[in-house]
Amino acid sequence: MALRVAIVEQLKRTLRMEHRTYADVAKALDLSVASVKRLFSHGDFSLARLDRICEMLGTELSELVEDANNSQAPTNQLSLAQEKAIVADPVLFLMTWLLLSRTTPEDILKTYRFSSAELQRQLIRLDRLKVVELQPGGRVKVLVSRRFSWRRGGPVQKHIHQKLLREFLASDFSEGGAEFFFHGDTVSDQSAAQLRRVIQHAIRECMDVIETDRTAPQQRHGVAFALAIRPWDYSGFVDYKR
Hints:
By secondary structure, this protein is mainly alpha-helical. It has twelve helices and two strands; from the N terminus they run H-H-H-H-H-H-H-H-H-E-E-H-H-H.
């Protein structure tokens, strides 16, 4: 299972490096783009399909597997010390947030009022924290997976709940482009587990949309979305329960 996931992630990296899209894969496999997205989301590739994609990319399946094995697995969670250092400084927190979203240093300078010296200073701090790795030629390698999670109950998650989430939910979601749905009900343990699987799948689908967005940075705008589930009874109703 772990190798299959690594192969799919390596395949995505290779597509990005070769400037290929899901549409190119769909054409090579004679499938719809939606079907290809599902394949990448579920990691459900046959050897024949992997061979055809590798042929399109001009590589061998054996090379893809070797690259997947040799690639450094990015971390899926930062340490408590890392999170404390990041959340203690608003500028460092912003810089971390941008870099983890794969915003390039060049685009940070274009969009935010940071000098090159300040940007470099923050990058050095994040390099020392092992969040990024500064490489020759001014390149920056992010050492954190796109699908990492902040520590449950950790410094960053607390900051998000106290600041970002309160501000996000203060809206009435009536503006154009906004969507809001809230529903509560009673379900069995089996149905609750199924709901969690649905949400996990939706998260993967959302991240795939973000990862395959090739729009120029100046044409993008900020959005936020929240998907969550937890055992919960509204406090206003609890007192009325038998």
